[in-house]
Amino acid sequence: MQPNAGIDWLSPPSLLAAAYVVGFGFSVVDGLVEGANPSLIGYRLRWVFDYDTGLSLGALLYLLLGYALFLLGYRLRLAAIVAPARNVQNRAMATRLASAVTTIAFIATFGTLVAYTASVGYGRYVALDDTGQSGLENLSLLGELSILPFSLGMYRFAIWRRTKGAAYMSLFDRAFTWAIMLPLQVGLSVFIGSRSRALTMVLVTVGAFHYGYRRLTARLILVLIAFCVLVVLPGISILRLDADNRPKLEPSLLWENMMERGSSLESFTVIFANLNAAPTPDPLWLTVATGLVPRAIWSEKPMATTASRFSDWASGRRTVGLSPPLPGELLLHFGYVGGLVAMFALGLVWRLIFIRWGPSCERASADSRGFLYIALMPTFLSLDAGFVNPYSVLIRFLVVGVPMLIVCQKPAYLEARAPASRRGRTSRRSVPQPASSRKTWRVE
Question: What percentage of the chain reaches a pLDDT higher than 70?
Answer without folding.
Answer: 76
